Every structure is written in structure tokens, then in C-alpha cells.
């Protein structure tokens, strides 16, 4: 596909500085920019590259003030990163989409498929499944009995959606994800054995939820494990039974959430965050990478880090002393030695 800087600017409502006829045929990172590609600059750490990049067009923030001469045509927007995201989404939606049913695949007679649906080879679609319009089910995906999938959703190769689970519109399930596996429920029995507690609930993903590769979301013991509208889960995340995650939240890779924890909306969790079970996390909470949460966070907008977690500012102050502990111990040992030598 080929665009001019002028066409791109019109799509993102940007202002052009330079040649409006500059051609773009691809995209590139600003430090690896090639002729006739589009790049962007939003992080000031990468500003040095805008003076040497060979990219033909660069999207920048309105407040960017160049300190040297530039060869690229600029498109100024309020937020360069969001503008690029909008462009890439437009590009992706412009790509042709697969339709039809490939063979061999299995579709139960009681299943229903909406208009322009795609089912890839070796996919399995069980009894009573309801698949909406423009849904894409890629090869080797498994859709269990009674599952419903809303319009314009995508289930990539090798993903598994167990029986009864419900997906809203425009959901994306990446390869290897498992939606609706049994919650980790076992009761201590005689002779130290554990007896399995049947998990009879489901998983509900509301509209525009995205689930990363090899992420697992357990079905509820009873009721539903719920991921609210607009939430995005990274790869390799574990969400246990009866968890609820509020709308428009983002969770990074290797986060683990234990059973029955309720998480508010618009939270942001870094990688490898761990949250104990039966807790409540307020709206807008931010947790730094590797934060371990063992008790509820009730104040909205709290920023925490460390394990066990604490206020981020408090943690940073404490860490200054933590780093000095070896030095402090040496000083204490020297003082004790001097004190014992001075005793009569």
C-alpha cells in the first residue's frame, strides 16, 4: 500500500511540516528508518535519531522542537504514540480477511455461524456454539459446547475455549490461550488426599477484551470469572477462578491473580505481579513489576511496588537504606569492636 504524508495527516488530523507529497510504503522504527517509510517519535530518549533517520515521514508531538536540521517530513499531532496506533489499526483493518470454512474441520450441526465467518482447517466447534458475524476461528482452535462468540472477534490457532464460556464483540484470543479451564479447587480428604471440587461456572469476556498468547483464565467454581470491557491481558498470565477484572485495565506478562480477587477498572499492572486471593483492588491502582500484594488496596489511584507491596514513594525511600545495609553493618561492627576495646 502507498500513501502520501498529506493522506496520512488527514487520517490522524495532523499538521504537516515539509513535503506533503512524501511517499510512504512501509513503517520502521526511528533508529532504523528507511526511505519511504513512516516512523514516529514520542519518547524523548529517542530524539537523537530523528536527526539521522532516513524515514521519509515522522509523526511527532505538537510540542517537539527540533535542535538540528531535519530531512524527514513531520506530521504534528497531540499524541504521536496514539496517532501511530490509530494508523496501524486502520492498516490492519484494510487487510483482506479470510472467510469460509476450510476442510478438514468439525462443526456440530447445532452450532450456528454468522455472516462472513471463517473457520480454519482442523478447528473444532462443538454443540450449541453461537458464532457472530465476521468472526475468525483459525486452524486447530477448539470451541467447546455452548460457547458464544460476539461479532468481529478473532480466535487464533491453538487457542482453547471450554464449554459454556461467553465472549463479547471484538475480542481477540491469541494462540495457546485457554479460556475456561478448571479453577484450582481441591478439598483436603482422608489420608492426606485432595478431592477435586467440581468447577461448574464459566468465563465471561466482555466486548473488546484481548487475551495474550498462553494466558489462562479459569472458570468459576460457581458463577463466572469476568474480564470487563476493554481490558487487555498480556502473554503468560494466570487468572484464577471467580476473579473479576474491571474495564479498560492492562496487565503485563506473567502476572498471577489468585481466586476470588476483585480488581477495579483502569488498573495497570507490570510484569510478574502476584496478587493473593479474596482481595479487593481499587480503581486506577498501578503496580510496578514484581509487586507482591497480600492485602486489599482500597484507595483508588494508589501506586505500589515491592513484596510485600507498599506505597511506591515509601518503597523508594526504604530502598535507599536497604542498599546501604552492608555498609551500615560494617560500621556497626566497627563501633561494637571499639566499644568493647574501651571497656575497663
Q: Would you report the number of β strands?
A: 40
Structural class: alpha/beta
Mean pLDDT: 94
Major sheet attributes: 12 strands, mixed
CATH topology of one domain: Udp-n-acetylmuramoylalanyl-d-glutamate--2,6- Diaminopimelate Ligase, Chain: A, domain 1
CATH class of one domain: Alpha Beta
Instruction: Tell me which oligomeric state these chains represent.
Output: single chain
**Range of helix content:** 10-25%
Indicate the radius of gyration in whole angstroms.
26 Å
CATH architecture of one domain, by name, is: 3-Layer(aba) Sandwich
CATH superfamily heading of one domain: MurE/MurF, N-terminal domain
The strand order across the widest sheet is 8-11-14-17-20-25-28-31-34-37-39-40
Percentage beta strand: 25-35%
Write the layout of secondary structure elements.
Blueprint: E1 3-4, H1 5-12, E2 15-17, E3 23-24, E4 26-27, E5 37-41, E6 57-61, E7 73-77, H2 80-94, E8 100-101, E9 106-107, E10 112-113, E11 118-119, E12 124-125, E13 130-131, E14 136-137, E15 142-143, E16 148-149, E17 154-155, E18 160-161, E19 166-167, E20 172-173, E21 178-181, E22 186-188, E23 194-196, E24 202-205, E25 210-211, E26 216-218, E27 224-227, E28 232-233, E29 238-239, E30 244-245, E31 250-251, E32 256-257, E33 262-263, E34 268-269, E35 274-275, E36 280-281, E37 286-287, E38 292-293, E39 303-305, E40 310-311, H3 312-323, H4 325-342
Parallel strand pairs: 4-5, 5-6, 6-7, 8-11, 9-12, 10-13, 11-14, 12-15, 13-16, 14-17, 15-18, 16-19, 17-20, 18-21, 19-24, 20-25, 21-26, 24-27, 25-28, 26-29, 27-30, 28-31, 29-32, 30-33, 31-34, 32-35, 33-36, 34-37, 35-38, 37-39
Antiparallel strand pairs: 1-3, 2-7, 22-23, 39-40
